Automatic annotation (TrEMBL):
Source species of the chain: Zygosaccharomyces mellis
Domain Topoisomerase 6 subunit A/Spo11 TOPRIM: 201-357
One Gene Ontology cellular component: nuclear chromosome
The protein's name in its UniProt record: DNA topoisomerase (ATP-hydrolyzing)
Matching Gene3D superfamilies: 3.40.1360.10, Winged helix-like DNA-binding domain superfamily/Winged helix DNA-binding domain
Length: 363
């Protein structure tokens, strides 16, 4: 107290010295880098009784600080939040290290169910894996960490599709519904044309509508169209978007790229995740959102359509999307008109009300 003339000086003099651990870009061996981070953290806390501050470089080049244990002013408020974040980070780093050293692969769903109490939600695992990959400045994050996305999306095709990954060939058989296979950033997709005619690619939000199409597709059909039908079962996962991205580079061109979602704000948001998701490089620029829109249902005089009322939450969500779309960057005019129509009429509808024939007539 003799050396501290102010309360602030006294507070700073009483703070314990903290060891800072940087999560920097790795050289070649990610496992060795992780081992260094874990060892420094463990030794600082266990042997030196010294708080640790893990600094992680984020996407915008700023730093995220994970401090443990919490100390100083308001430490009781931050204690749980900081300790939980540090526990999640250490747990994921340890799991990644084990996967790399044992040359095993896990899905993000496997990781989540390995400690549900800690992670709480699967989105927590996905978010922190992204943070770790950004801290290591990985270009092929999902390939380098030995943690791959769980399979979710479905694909049905009338033509065989070959997927080549690391020299291993996997084929998607025609006239069978299949899970979209695991792929990497350098994977290749090749459509093996067996029938003449144009090729239409349909992306459907709902699995029920997807099944409606698939159940009516027969190998002996005399339709002049070849179909590739895909569903992400709601919001698209990484593998579904990567698969669509790779199909754009196929030697055999796909003539029509169509996407259909519910006539509500969430359907619009799902469509934007496929086409305009700026956070990921795996977008499908050829996809066109063709519906389902309210004006299509009204023009087609769908008497069986049951329009649902927009809730307050729906309206707020639609307004936020509309504000984002009407920024000076330029946006899809049809999408903006649809959102305004939903907000004005306070109505929404599900895509299930349209029959299979109605979708096919949209071409």
């Amino acid at each position: 107290m003799h050396d501290s003339s102010t309360r602030d000086d006294l507070y700073k003099s009483l703070l314990p010295s903290t060891r800072t651990v940087h999560m920097n870009a790795h050289d070649k061996d990610i496992s060795g880098t992780i081992d260094t981070i874990l060892s420094l953290t463990k030794n600082s806390i266990e042997q030196h009784q010294q708080p640790v501050n893990i600094q992680i470089k984020t996407q915008n080049k700023s730093f995220m600080s994970l401090k443990f244990p919490a100390h100083g002013l308001y430490s009781t408020v931050a204690a749980y939040n900081n300790s939980n974040r540090v526990a999640i980070m250490i747990s994921l780093l340890h799991m990644i290290q084990k996967c790399i050293t044992s040359n095993t692969i896990k899905t993000n769903r496997d990781v989540f169910y390995s400690n549900v109490e800690l992670y709480g939600k699967q989105v927590t695992v996905d978010r922190w894996l992204n943070i770790i990959s950004q801290g290591f400045e990985l270009t092929n994050a999902r390939d380098s960490l030995n943690v791959i996305p769980a399979q979710k999306g479905l694909v049905f095709t009338t033509q065989e599709i070959k997927v080549l990954t690391n020299g291993i060939e996997e084929r998607i058989n025609p006239f069978h519904s299949s899970l979209i296979p695991h792929m990497k950033q350098d994977s290749q997709c090749q459509i093996l044309r067996e029938r003449s005619g144009t090729t239409r690619l349909l992306v459907l939000e709902k699995e029920a509508v997807y099944n409606q199409f698939v159940n009516n597709m027969q190998p002996n059909s005399h339709s002049y169209d070849n179909f590739i039908i895909i569903t992400g079962k709601g919001y698209p996962d990484f593998l579904t978007r990567l698969f669509l991205h790779k199909l754009q580079d196929s030697e055999i061109a796909i003539d029509y790229w169509e996407m259909y979602t519910d006539a509500d704000p969430y359907g619009i948001d799902i469509a934007m995740k496929y086409v305009e998701n700026s956070k990921e490089a795996y977008t499908c620029n050829k996809l066109v959102h063709r519906g389902v829109f309210l004006f299509q249902l009204m023009l087609n005089h769908q008497t069986q359509v049951q329009y649902l009322p927009m809730t307050q939450r729906d309206t707020v969500f639609a307004t936020r999307i509309l504000q984002r779309l009407t920024e000076p960057t330029g946006s899809n005019t049809t999408t903006i008109q649809e959102l305004r129509r939903q907000i004005f009429l306070q109505k929404k509808a599900e895509m299930n009300v349209m029959s299979r024939e109605n979708y096919l007539e949209q071409k």
